Amino acid sequence: MESSSELVPFHLLITPIESNYKACTIPYRSPSDDPLKPTPTDLAWIDVFLNSIPSFRKQAESDTTVPDAHIKAEKFAQRFTEILEDLKKDPKSHGGPPDSILLCRLREQVLREIGFRDIFKKVKDEENSKAISLFGGVVRLNDAIEDEGKRIENLVRGILAGNIFDLGSAELVELFAKDGMSFLTTCQNLVPRPWVIDDLDTFKLRWSKKSWKKVVIFADNSGADVILGILPFARELLRRGTQVVLAANALPSINDITYPELKEIIAKLKDENGQLMGVDTSNLFIASSGNDLPVIDLNMVSQELVHLASDADLVVLEGMGRGIETNLHAKFKCDSLKIGMVKHVEVAQFLGGRLYDCVFKYTEVSS
Fold it and tell me: Could you report the per-residue pLDDT of 179-220, keeping only the tens digit for each?
């Protein structure tokens, strides 16, 4: 379903939405802070975005779809640096005070105004091809685990391991540039449990006793994240007879998966019978979330998604941007799961965990 109409609030949020929902987990400032002075948290997060500029400039320089990419990449770096320095001097400039959504939006706006549309396209395509070739092996490993609880834990570890493919994190960009990352090694090397938020045992217990009718999953990154993490989990839900709606970005942002890319990937993974490694996909739906950022404000999603997910009884928000930074505290009318890896020191400090710690927050709504 193409997203062409205006954006609307996600219908499964607790109402009234105005008093129950804010797309922000980490408050950059308190009401008592001087609106004209940056807070230490403002400054720390502005620095996170400043530190990401060299890797974004490098990606932009190598965008062969844009004429004079080298000159335009330099222009992006200068302009976005100016905006961030303005915000340090005056937090109310450029639509501030800043939060994660505003900072992401400003970066995307500068890129698009200069003429860049999808600077990570090449790396996304490469990572998607690699992950597609590994999909069958990952699924077979999961299917071979007979104990249901252990299989679910393995699938969850796959989502968390896949979620490390994040080119919005300056540290991870360096790791990828050095030697890439092995998905299976990452699965084995997740930080030991208990994680900073760890409801996995509760979730496994509920899984054994309860079947959801329809699950909507807000997917995060391309490559191993969606293909080796989210899709095997979605396939397991389909095996149980659950309907699954996968929601992906309407427009490119960093290395996040987009709706057209996800449709193409699933078409490649299906066999001639339309199955995903032997599992029927007639209950699998793909939707554009209407979003164009690596974070999400659930006040603004596509009407198509609301229609497809109208009777969902489990909402899954995956990834640091969607599941942790903007929606960790989001309350829903149905069960919810926020899952992701902590890839910024600032998020780890806020949560009281470690860098590369994991969040698995499951909330059940009593029927």
Answer: 555 777 788 889 999 999 999 999 999 999 989 999 999 999
The secondary structure of residue 365, as a DSSP letter, is P
Per the listing, tokens 């968390």 go with 160
- Its pTM surpasses 0.90: yes
Query: Is the pLDDT confidence value at 2 over 50?
Result: no
User: How far, in Å, CA of 9 to CA of 299, rounded?
Assistant: 4
DSSP annotation string for 257-324? -BHHHHHHHHHHHS-TTSEETTEE-TTEEEEE----SSS--TTSB-HHHHHHTTT-SEEEEESIIIII
pLDDT at 47 over 80: yes
* Cα 303–Cα 309–Cα 311 angle in degrees, nearest 5: 125
Separation in Å, CA 188 to CA 143, 183, 234: 17, 9, 21
Q: How far apart are CA 246 and CA 275, in angstroms?
A: 16
Q: Specify the length of the chain in residues.
A: 367
